[in-house]
Queue: 4 jobs
Job 1
Amino acid sequence: MASFYRRLVGIFGAASLVAVFMAIGVISVAADEKGATCSNGSVAPGHYDSLTITGFCNVDSGNVTVNHNLTIAPGGGLNAAFSGSDLTVGHD
């Protein structure tokens, strides 16, 4: 019986770690912000006034519209070559 509980605690611990790492890597920026920064992971779909990329980010989970400035910092990268996810930048 102790072996069962030990295994159960291990499974819940591993699931918790996976959830934390997914939240850190995937939810890098929130949509509908004035000036957002993505440091790693996916850019959340939505509208942004400006967006700064400081790490390696993907547009891979829906459409992203940047109304004004899209800035890619030195050492940063943006991959927007995914089907079904469009990147639109205006006024730049």
Job 2
Amino acid sequence: MSVNRPRSVSVLSWTRSEKRGSARVAAPGGPWLNGPLISFVQVAFSLDDVGAFFIPFVFYLSYFLFALPSSAVARRIGLKRGLASALLVMAAGTALFGECVAGRWYAGALAGLLVLGAGLTLLQVTVNPYVSLLGPPERAAQRIAIMGICNKCAGILAPLALALLVMRDIGGVAERARAARDPAVREAILAGFMRAIYWPYMGMAAILVAMAALIALSPLPELDVPLSRRPDDAWRARILRPRLLAGIGAMFLYVGVEVMAGDAIGTYARGMGLPLEQTRFLTALTLAAMMLGYLAGLLAVPRLLSQERCMELSCLAGCGLTVLAWATHGTLSVLCVALLGLSNAMIMPALFPIAIRGAGAATPLASALLVMAFSGGAVMPQLYVRLKPVMGFQPVFAMLMLPSYLAILLYGRHVGRE
């Protein structure tokens, strides 16, 4: 694969450029607001679980819709400018979401999430290959782990800020709205609750614009990955090889289990009888566990074990925690779900480099296909909320999570070590 690297990007050692680049291109914590937002829209728009779970459905569906167009944009304008453009699109979606929620228009709010997801899709199409190519391939998982640490820092703070600033009395609002006999009084209660989200989202939009400017003006190198203008047989063979095709399936399942642990945990905990005042913080707890997992992976890979072995151990841990969550009840079961963040942390940093390894000139398209597989985050939570009234929330959770971890484990063992 022909990659143009400036001299400052060493392929022989873990350089300052690798660390700085991984940190600067880390994605913001936008996706991790979906967990508390599910509870927020349930109260604000009086929705059931299926209606509220359109939040992650629309958000992650955008990855499927916009991955290939984003790949074309990234090839045209380059990876670095693609990063800056992605942040600007995310800012527009964030502002639209805040405006529509304050205006009490749920369909418009979902449209804002779709735009935000489009920006994140462009970000993923550019950031993952950028960080993977920023240095030697055996350290790719380590670089993506640094990016993940920065991401999860924002991801922990964002839902905490939303819970404290916007949802601090969500239980009381829900009770007062249910108790109000006059529809006008009920609407006034909910309208005031929804308006509280406006300025936090406008502030996040402004931060994203500032980050776009920082990326555009930074000395980060531009890494060029040329794509064949006319696909030939060799190019097609790289795209159709089993490593990538199976990796797409594994990525679909991985994002599904990650979203279940981060976004569905609030609904899971309410099934255990925990009140809204407690469940609003659980997404941040999952992300804190992911942060610990990233830090552990950063120290261990590749110093103590390979990224492939780390992924296998993570899948085994996910299987064990899923079984414990199924076998226990109450706070202990919810804690096992939150700890899935720890087991999930080092799957993605290893899975993405394994899947695109050897893609050569087809790397941008391979990256786009993997990002399309992020739509697993749209499908798996919808299956969960639609099946849990029939089968019960604990059995459905285990039924979705356990086979997914096992499938990713098989991929890592039989494909990742080739």
Job 3
Amino acid sequence: HLLRDEAAKTEQKKGRSSTVPDLKPVTEEGGDVKIKITPQIIHDIFEHYPSVKKAYTENVPHNLKEEEFWKRYFQSKFFHRNRSNADRMKNQQKDDIFDKCFAEDEDELVHGPKKRRLDRLNRLIDLSMTAEDHLESGNEPDITMQPGTGKSLTLLRKFNRHAERVLKSSLSEKPMKPKESPSDYTQKKGYKDEIIIEDLDADEIEPRILLNINDSRRYFESQTGTSMNDIGQNEKFPTSALTNMKALFADWHPDLRKPIRRSVSSQVTQMLNKAIKDRNNLNARQRNSEMKIPPALEQQVMNIHSASKEFLRHFWSTVNSAAPERIEKNKRMVEQIRKTLERIDEVAETAGEDGKVVRLMFKHMEAALKNALVVRQAPINGKRKRAQ
């Protein structure tokens, strides 16, 4: 967090100060009045009063020295207009330079700022675009802001103008190029993204890779899990079994005159049932002894299995997609699959004597994870071929 905060501080640009430049004269012991001015104060004055900057450019240093220019500025009517000493403002001597600045500034405050170009106006917040939707209630400008209707209007316009300049300096709006049409500018402003609802768009058909199967018989055999060899062996088994049975009973002749005692047949049946039961119990004990692991380790194995299935599901759903967001998602899934394989190795190593059992439990899942990495790292003719 500390590194992130430090990086944000270094990348963040300092905006313009929102305070209005106001210089207060300081009276010294001898009665002299002095005003301390710095390059930063000069910059703030130029930013807040463009007419003063214009006068400075036109007169310094050709007609006036810089010291003389600022001395006349602090003695001018323009400087004392917003101060409480109105009597001193009336007694100010005429100054051609700053009286012109005063007149230009007052004209802007009284008559309002110049109209903005309508082709540069943000259509999403332009009230005139919805004028026809308010026929009953109306949508007219506020008459209280008409110029010359009140003394406070000039002061309000002054504060509004200052706030607008502060915001413009922080927004740093990029001007429209001469060859750029209003429609192009509108597209760059992102209006299209604001008015289009993705849920209403038609679903895009993702490009898919056709699977060419050279040997369809082998493919369907792999899907069903039964091969032709297995089928042939299963067909031969009844024939061989019947031949063996015939050879065993070739020399046997039934003699119904010699009945078998009931006790003997019951004893044989019990022996056969006991042998079958013992065989089943032995197999069950062997399976339980081989796969028995501590509960905590078993829970770890189950969690890794669940996470691995989710990673593989997301991987295979995005492996052949051309969409940028799905490609990025597939890369994240590959990284998670690699971490999962490392996690499997770590669990198997820390399991000690149960490591072989853990490996056996992860055998098929580990093969599926490695198969995904092979597909991701083996592009063939610009396409990915699934590993067999």
Job 4
Amino acid sequence: MHSERDEIVSREREFHNLRFSQEEDPRGSLDKWYRTIRHGAERQDEQIKRLSKNADVLEYGCSDGGWSLHSLHLPDLCRSLTGIDISDVAVNKANERASTLGSTNATFLAMNAEAMSFEDNKFDLVYGRGIIHHLDLDRCFSDVVRVLKPNGVASFYEPMGHNPLLNAYR
């Protein structure tokens, strides 16, 4: 018997697999809304680049790898880059991008962010943007803390998580 949480995770996976199976991102029409959060996003980008130098990094909700590979160029900065996403379609695209770029220190995995299979104390930095509102906070944060090394840092930017329209849609 599946729990309510399992059903939510399954719906999220189906939604994002469909999204990443399309030629164009159906959320493209939302660009005007994303522009309103640009300043905060740019500040987080700077922080991530700074904290990634020679670090073992986990991108939490990696999507198709575009942010870490093309926008931030993290494989050039960090010791290792691991990305996780609920969508195996997105992860396949991310691994293809990493391969095309020759990023041998970047790996992307399909994984539930609330129940990561990584060993304890693995990452110096865990970061994500627009992911936390999809998750059970108690479960995800306890797992983030578990995989962070002592003195590791977690950085999340969640500008739309409490948007009532977004939550009604979900």
